[in-house]
Design a protein that fits this description.
Blueprint lengths: L1 E2 L6 H12 L18 H13 L3 H8 L4 E6 L2 E8 L7 E6 L13 H5 L5 E6 L14 H15 L5 E5 L2 H12 L4 E6 L16 H17 L1 H8 L1 H10 L1 H14 L6 H4 L3 H14 L2 H16 L11 E6 L8 H4 L4 E7 L7 H4 L1 H12 L5
Helix pairs in contact: 5-6, 8-13, 9-10, 9-13
């Protein structure tokens, strides 16, 4: 376990600006807005700010505000933030990000979760293939195995809590299913989606409505996941070479959960949006991050046993700009003891509504009295 500091060279930053400046813009259909994908009008405005207004070094200081480390686990270098709670008996909590975000997803809730008596020892790793962890793509279940060793063998906790959404949901679900002796409780903002293989006779009316919504969403917005699960390498060449292309792809997904006027708000703000994109750019991990979808697809369709529902207590928060799944859907997969419909927030709630999201985590994990 070695200390780590983010320090990107001026050579990398100057090359970035040159690439943005030399972008070959494809043009867009008149009046198309965001209906064909990322709006070129918006992207040009963002690129101008990226070159002339955004200060990476200032935001790099924010990334280095909290202690970071590198630990080698099973031959894989894992980057993580580790911030201890200031109360008398903090709960250890590992937070797992998703795609297309990073460990930076949780930056704003660190002070909110480490102050006061109801607080946590926070462990916020970068998934392998993302950010400053090693550039290797492994499945969600394999990541869960690394997280258990990080928490128990590297950091010395006997038991711990875990939370995650998006890709982090899959990792957290695997933690609860496979490592119930070590995992005290888990929290989710999604629990998975109908894939068309469910028995409709076993589904409630609300579950069927949810399945229909997901099917429509999949056809209109789900192309990214299909590409990641089938041809991530083909896509990686362009995104690893063009910062504007990378931004366009990430924005296209972010826009799926927010109307155009909220696209920056969904990521917490313009600088937060660009810092998140920058983490992919400076580490050249967009390819391996997408390849994780392929690793999960191979694990899912390659004959591995599906995860068993765990008895670990689970809290679930449904955000208003996410798919509105009913409680009975969540209960198919996890042991739901807390289910809450949130009043604000979307996919990146920890960035967008940090205080509300932090209170949700505290109220759940500290309600268990374990």
């Amino acid at each position: 376990m070695k200390s780590f500091t983010v320090n990107i060279s001026e050579t990398v930053l100057n090359d970035l600006k040159a690439r943005i400046r030399n972008t070959r813009w494809p043009g867009e259909a008149e009046g198309s807005g965001w209906h064909f994908g990322t709006s070129e009008k918006y992207l040009k405005e963002l690129a101008t700010y990226w070159m002339n207004g955004y200060d990476w070094k200032e935001n790099e200081e924010k990334l280095n505000q909290y202690p970071q480390y590198i630990a080698e686990i099973d031959g894989i270098q894992i980057h993580f933030q580790y911030v201890k709670g200031k109360g008398s008996n903090p709960k250890p909590l590992i937070l797992t990000h998703g795609w297309p975000d990073s460990f930076y997803r949780f930056h704003k809730i660190i002070p909110l979760l480490t102050e006061g008596e109801q607080c946590f020892d926070l462990v916020i790793p970068s998934i392998p293939g993302f950010g400053f962890s090693e550039k290797v793509a492994i499945s969600s279940e394999e990541v869960a195995g690394l997280w258990v060793k990080l928490m128990t063998e590297v950091l010395g906790y006997d038991k711990f809590c875990a939370a995650g959404g998006d890709v982090g949901m899959g990792v957290t679900k695997a933690l609860a299913s496979k490592y119930a002796d070590e995992v005290e409780a888990v929290h989710f903002t999604d629990v998975g989606y109908p894939m068309g293989q469910e028995d409709p006779n076993s589904m409630t009316g609300e579950e069927k409505e949810f399945a229909q919504f997901v099917q429509q969403w999949w056809y209109s917005e789900g192309a990214y996941a299909m590409l990641h699960s089938t041809k991530p390498q083909s896509l990686a060449y362009g995104l690893n070479d063009s910062p504007v292309g990378l931004a366009a792809w990430i924005l296209s997904f972010g826009n799926a959960g927010a109307p155009p006027e909220l696209i920056e708000t969904a990521f917490g703000g313009k600088d937060e949006l660009l810092t998140n994109i920058m983490i992919y750019w400076v580490t050249e991990t967009i390819g391996t991050s997408m390849r994780m979808y392929k690793a999960d697809a191979i694990a899912q369709w390659g004959g591995s046993q599906p995860l068993q529902k765990s008895g670990v207590p689970a809290g679930v928060a449904v955000l208003p700009r996410e798919a509105q799944f009913p409680r009975e859907w969540a209960e198919r997969f996890v042991n739901v003891v807390h289910f809450r419909k949130m009043e604000e927030g979307g996919h990146f709630a920890a960035l967008e509504v940090p205080r509300i999201f932090a209170e949700e985590l505290k109220s759940f994990f500290y309600s268990l009295n374990r």
